[in-house]
Amino acid sequence: MAGIKEVKIINERNNEKAKNNENERTNESNERKGNNERKGKRKFKVNMGKIKEFKEMNACNFPGFYVNVGNPHFIMKWNDVEIVNVKEIGKAIRYCNQFKNGTNAHFIQKIKNNEYKIRSYERGVEDETLACGTGICSSAYAMFKKFNERKFLFHARGGDVKIDINENEEIFMTGDASYIFEGNIEI
């Protein structure tokens, strides 16, 4: 029962914010409808649209890149993402006062040209997730701006994702789609 009350409180808190962002989400979804294609039985290529904002900056003394794809992301390069305390550092970045509504935090490691490992801390989840599609797109865009690369392979804990950035700076994400969970909650 305590969990249900907690969900209700969170929903009430986020309800006004959701109403304010409804038009933005609808417009963003409409922008992404074109140029999507099925690449196999479980593989899809999705047009993720264009970046809304990009800047190289420091956040809470961590150098990185701020990228907004409709939701905010802060990307940091690391020599070894396996040793990063994603929850601790991700939480510090997420709540850094430079980000009015918080941000997602991503830790990337270059393996070789155009190939990266990524770990992600997502706001709302408030912990590490296995993958974040918009975070991978944001990370690819940051590396595109830094090194002028246009094709990427990212290895997330939840699977591999390919990113292509075309001449108009539209981002295309290709990866497997898998049915992973179904659940019901009674409120």
Briefly say what this structure is.
This protein is of the alpha+beta class and 187 residues long. The protein is 29% helix and 37% strand.
Would you kindly provide a written description of the structure presented here, covering whatever features stand out?
- The protein is an alpha+beta fold and 187 residues long.
- Helices cover 29% and strands 37% of the residues.
- It folds into two domains: 1-31, no CATH class; 36-176, Diaminopimelate Epimerase, Chain A, domain 1 (Roll), CATH 3.10.310.10.
- It has three helices and eleven strands, in the order αβββββαβββαβββ.
- Strands 1, 2, 3, 4, 5, 6, 7, 8, 9, 10 and 11 form an eleven-stranded mixed sheet that branches.
- A hairpin with a 3-residue loop joins strand 4 (62-68) and strand 5.
- The protein is globular, with a radius of gyration of 17 Å.
- Mean pLDDT is 84; it is low at 1-33.
Summary tags:
alpha+beta; Diaminopimelate Epimerase, Chain A, domain 1; 3 helices; about 30% helix; disordered N terminus
Question: What secondary-structure arrangement, pairings included, does this model have?
Answer:
Layout (H helix, E strand, L loop, with lengths): L1 H30 L5 E2 L4 E8 L2 E7 L2 E7 L3 E6 L8 H9 L9 E9 L2 E8 L4 E3 L3 H15 L3 E6 L2 E7 L4 E7 L11
Parallel strand pairs: 5-6, 7-9
Antiparallel strand pairs: 1-2, 2-11, 3-4, 4-5, 6-7, 7-8, 9-10, 10-11
Q: What's the multimeric state?
A: single chain
**Total number of beta strands:** 11
Provide mean pLDDT, rounded. Answer: 84
Order of helices and strands: HEEEEEHEEEHEEE
Q: Globular, elongated, flat, extended or rod-shaped: what is the shape?
A: globular
Low-confidence stretches: 1-33
CATH hierarchy: architecture of the largest domain = Roll
How much of the polypeptide forms β-strand, as a percent range?
35-45%
CATH class label of the largest domain: Alpha Beta
- Percent helix range: 25-40%
Give the count of structural domains: 2
Structural class of the secondary elements?
alpha+beta
Distance between the termini: 9 Å
- Largest sheet at a glance? 11 strands, mixed
Radius of gyration: 17 Å
**The named CATH superfamily of the largest domain:** Diaminopimelate Epimerase, Chain A, domain 1
Q: Kindly report the CATH topology of the largest domain.
A: Diaminopimelate Epimerase, Chain A, domain 1
- Helical run tally: 3
